[in-house]
Structure formats: structure tokens, C-alpha cells
Amino acid sequence: MCFRVVCMADYEDRCQCRIIHEERVDGARSKALAPDEVGRLANFFKALADTTRLSIILALQHGEMCVCDLAAFLAVSESAVSHQLRLLRQLQLVTNRRQGPVLYYRLVDDHVSQVTDLVLEHIRE
Amino acid sequence: MCFRVVCMADYEDRCQCRIIHEERVDGARSKALAPDEVGRLANFFKALADTTRLSIILALQHGEMCVCDLAAFLAVSESAVSHQLRLLRQLQLVTNRRQGPVLYYRLVDDHVSQVTDLVLEHIRE
DNA sequence: ACTATATATGAACATATGCTCAGATATTAA
DNA sequence: TTAATATCTGAGCATATGTTCATATATAGT
Fold first, then answer.
1. What number of H helices and E strands is found in chain A?
2. How many CA atoms lie within 13 A of A73 on its CB side?
3. To the nearest whole angstrom, how far is the Cα of B49 from the nearest Cα of chain A?
């Protein structure tokens, strides 16, 4: 039932890995997303994988908030919030508007909320 | 415009944090999910936040696969795959069926796929 | 200009995470 | 029962990650 095959040279010539169902592996490869896309997908999930950042996202779903309000809400330092907001900004998930010295952060669009809602349904069932 | 308030005693009496918009902070608190739910949400996202685990999930969307096929597909060791599969099992995202010595892994349901599809749309737009 | 407020940022540090390696377990065949 | 296959698991290790602390920047008021 099982047999050994050497990996295709164009894959990884250092690995002599076992493959039981070559056709499944080939099928998975042919249907696989581009590595670049997998990376961007993972980065999106990384943004939500930390309770501080996730709580920021969830809080902003109810309206914009400034850094120190978020810090108070989350009970963490403003510096920590600021660092995480930068990450979320770089990922284009949040943006801000300045009013005097205060920066009000908000979600860029409702895509993230759609995702959190969907997962929340899954969690709760 | 700005004023200082001391945090509510029941929140964190050690922190004398600044709050600009007390009503927004209170609003966020009243609408906030239970910490337990936030944690479970974050754990779900953590599962997809690593390219190895994400690739496993994406591969299994096209049908069940065994450990060594996944390892060949991902070009990582079988041990690494096995460790990650355990995590995904604990999170109830994947399950397996044994056929002789071979364990075939599959997704428990299509919730994860709905999520990855949704995020993929977001990524691609 | 000087001060205070609001936020940002870099470095350091402690913890979390993912992989490797060695060895354990489970199943099958001889 | 012995050997081989397929997978699992714990410990160790290197890297990634999140927070803190000190400091820098930006804006507003005096």
C-alpha cells in the first residue's frame, strides 16, 4: 500500500521525504495559493491573534476612539496600545484622524468586522 | 476639552490612567465581549496565524490528507506537521480517521473555509 | 518661547512559539 | 515476536512577539 518516492528535484533536493499518495500531494500543489497570498492571509490572522489587538478591533467596531481611551479600556499602557495600533495601521486595518493633539482611530472598512462576526458565530455554536 | 479622572476602583485600582472620553470608554466596556470569548476568538485566529498551520488548513479544503503527504506538500518535517496538527485538533478545527497505520486528516466543518474565503476576498480586492 | 498634553518610537527584556532531534507508541506483516 | 511503517510526543533551542521604559515628536495654550 505504501511506497517510497524521492521528492521531485525542483521541490527540495535535500529532502528524501516519504509520500504515500503522490496524486494527493500533486493535487494539493496544483490547487495551492501563491506563497505570497498565504503569507498575506497569515498576516491578517496574526493581526487578530493577540488579545490586545483583537480587543482594539472589537472596540473600534462601536465607533472611533483615541489612544488613551483605548488604553484605559484595555487596562494596558498607552505605549503598548500605540505599538499595536502601528501594526494595525501597517496592515491597513485601522486609520486615524487628528483633532488637535488627539488621534482618533477607526476601522478602515467593515471587512474585519465581518470576519470577527463569522468566527464569533462559529465559537458560540 | 481634556480632563483627568481616576479609573473606577472596580477596574484596576493600580492604574491612574488618563481618560479623555469617559463615555466612550464606558460604552466600549458595556458592549465588550466576555474576556473568555475574546480569548477563544484570539485562539481561533492564532490557529491560522502561522503559515504552516494555515497551509495545512488550506490543503485540507481540497480533501483529506495523511501526515506524510502534508509534510511533503509543505516541505517541512513530519514531526513539525504532527505538532501543528495536534494544535489544530485541540482547537477542534481538524479531525482524523485511521486506516491501518495511516491517519487521514480532514476539516471538522466548513466554518474555517468560510473564514479563509472571506479574508482572501479582502486580501485580493 | 515655554509648558503641558497626546502620541510615537527605539531598545531592552521576558515570554511565547515553532522547529529539530531523539525516542515512544500504534498498527501491520512476516 | 520481530521488523517495518506511520505517527506522536517531550525536551531543547533559536527566533518571534509583546510589553516596559526612556525619550522623541506634534499640537495647543499661555
1. 6, 3
2. 33
3. 5
Amino acid at B109: D
Interface pTM, i.e. ipTM: 0.89
Q: How far is the CA of B88 from the C1' of C1 (A)?
A: 61
The domain limits of chain A are 1-32, 38-124
Query: Any chain B CB within 8 A of the CB of A24?
Result: yes
Q: Give this prediction's pTM.
A: 0.89
Tens digit of each residue's pLDDT (9 = 90 or more) over B72-92: 999 999 999 999 999 999 999
| CATH 1.10.10.10 assigned to A38-124 | yes
* Per-residue exposure over B22-60, b if at least 16 CB sit within 10 Å of its own CB, e if not: eebbebbeeebbeeeebebbbebbbbbbbbbbbbbbbbb
Q: What is the mean pLDDT of each run of 10 residues along chain A (125 residues)?
A: 31 54 93 96 98 98 97 96 98 97 97 98 93
Taking CB atoms and an 8 Å limit, are A44 and B123 in contact across chains? yes
